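so im writing up the methods section and need the S-layer domain-containing protein record in one place, dumping it here so i stop losing it
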Amino acid sequence: MRRFHLQFVLLMAGIITGIMFILPSRVAAGESAGTEWFKDIRNHWARSHILRLAALDLVRGYPDTTYRPQRPLTRLELVALVMRVGDFEKAAAEAARRETRRRTVEDSGTPSSAGNPIPRVPWGQDSFALAVKKEFLPPEWVASFNPDKPVTRAEVAALLARSFYLAVPEEGDTSGSAPSTGDFPDIDRAPALYQPCIRAVAAAGIMSGYSDGTFRPAHILNRAEMAVILSSLLDRNWVKVPAGRRLEGWVSSVRMDPRGLELELTSLTGVQKLRVSPDCHCFADGRECTLLQAGNHRVEVILDGRRQVRWVNLLEERKRAGKTEKVTGSVKSVVLGEDNLLVLNDLNCEDRIFPLAWDAVLVGKKAKQDFRSLKPGDFVEVELDGGRVKRVTLLEVKKISGTVGTLTGKTLGLLGRSGQKGNPDRFDYWDRARIVDREDRRAGGVMRGDRVEITYLDPIPGEIQDERVLQIKITSRPGLKKQTGILQAIKTTGGTYRIVLEKDREYEVDPAVRVTDPSGNRIAFSDLDRYIKSRVELWLDGAGVVMEIRN
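--- predicted struct ---
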């Protein structure tokens, strides 16, 4: 499939150019009197498609500012066109040079391929010869090639199917391996060898039938019809166009300044301010409209060679977000392409994948409207509308490290932070935060004495206890530490017990402390009174709080 798409893109890039390859160069980018590019398509049904291609310099008109949409396409024009879209012209020239070095071409003929003479054509001989060698042309064309004969839809299907290497059965193969999609009631009116090609191009979406379901294989293809086919290929991104000439986004503003109109185009990758060409054309549902109507619409924009807006098509109106759901977390990745996705690790340590709406915006004090600027680990608040991301706020977080000294159901306090200006020493509602280990994996919980890094929001700097904890990362968890000495006293202060050892060493005691006698039997904390002046063994957690006492 990837090979098919690549060949398809290369091939179709020249079909566009091929439409114009016999045309004079004067009218190459809508060059015409006033703002009308081609005077003979003003009310034509294919007007928007023709102007779209002309804006990309891919189709041209004539010196009299006409496009001549009903003009038939000839066989030679189609062959040259396919070779251009397939980017085969350079290869054709190189092949011709090699052939010239190998032999001298006689006046009576040209080089042959596999023993079969290649017909002479009025122009484009190198490209034509390469197309024959690659067997892009149906065999009967080569046998008696008429360069000026108008092509039928069946012939176009045959050439495109062979050139794109679509799934077409070999001659004599009746196994039915061709795609079934594209069976038309009049397909039997096409030559038998062309019928699998018609099915193949229909299945690939290259050509389709008419409103009555027929394909009309004998119908002569004209310039307007080819423009529509090419325009549909542009919709599929199968036509190669110059980089930066075809854009998509939503129009955030249209303003007039002394230099003329300026269009501001916003997309997931940024904001662009674009000058508008005086002969710009704007369409909605195939009907021409004013550029001012494009505001707050998703649009396709085509720029000319001077990067001025030349053609605009309104695709979808931007709607105001309804009731939104908010999710906070850290960015894991952003995927932009055919699918636009934001992968978020929420505050429950769950990875969540959200599609980005085409009009999603990225805001925040340090943010810019470019979702590629989001880095893994950035904390964001995401607003969802119907499951799609409409707004992402890049949060301005702060971080602080320390040792957990106090820990209750409501408050977490850090040791040694009290009184330090600008650094909070306690955090309320810490249990609502995400708790992870050093590898950012979910951790079971925080313990007193843990060395932690706290990521938090500070809505009003300078205010006390307004911080919102987003993440607590446990960077280390020390084991219990032994301390021995002579028991001097037991104190009670505000319901908290404290033990004093010799040299006035004082330690806070955990309410759930475990106390054992010299035989290892567990005793009540109050029984320690009889061990005053005895040597005891204290086991302290990382915060220096007594967790166990052994006599």
